[in-house]
Amino acid sequence: MTKNLLSSAVFAGLIAGAVAALLQFMFVIPLLLEGELYESGARVHFMSDGSTQSVREAPGLGTEWGRHAMTVGFNLVTYTGYGLLLLAGMVLARALRGLEITPESGLIWGICGFLAVQLAPAVGLPPELPGTPAAELAPRQIWWLGTILATVAGLGLVAFWRGLAGLVVGLVLILAPHIIGAPHLDTYFGIAPPELSAEFATMSLGMAMIGWGLLGYFSAYFFARGER
Amino acid sequence: MMMTKTANPAAARSGLGACALALVLGVALLTVSGMAQATVLHDAAHDQRHAMAFPCH
Q1: B38-57 burial, b for 16+ CB within 10 Å, e for fewer?
Q2: What is the ipTM of this complex?
């Protein structure tokens, strides 16, 4: 059981992490590198006379292969970590509620993982282009973690506590972090074009959704296969 | 009968043990890839942290 759980999470993490890294190189990293041109001052969008201008042109992946190899490596680590948590949840739900572990149910777990870990925190703290000044790190990390935990608890109540009370308490938990509000600065300091920041946020979320879907599907697939 | 009576709680316990272990390992991996602030680690994980929306710096 333990061996099957750990190896299934690792296999699924490697597949989801590799695909997610590939998608990031196609859609996300070019935007990130374009954002760095504004961070370094190589490009300027907001002119001192109040006008705006800049070309829309990502610099491409360039030649920093060591840097990109690290991105692949850390994606594998991150998705394996999330895979372990996801499978722990599936096994727990089976032990307590008799919920079967199948690739199809795994896909739903994966999408719920995306909702709790990527989308819910991004509602308050959008994924940031490099060079975007933000509030102090510690309060943001606390809000980020608190939002994930509240959303996981909320989704768990909606899914497993039958009846209206579970739905209501679950929704309150999911909304609570946003009523409290994420830590933000009092002023806007962004130096990159707003369109670029928005595209970076939506692209990174969209690609993470695919990663999480694959993670849930394959975690359950390998786990179910290991038990036969 | 005896077998099933004793086997089920044991299986459930090993299931919970496996969950706890997976939880600890998962959080440890995510601390390294997403949260740890050591400069070398931060710089290496930088692009991935931005792409996965970890609150990073």
Answers
A1: eeebeebbbbbbbbbbbbbe
A2: 0.91
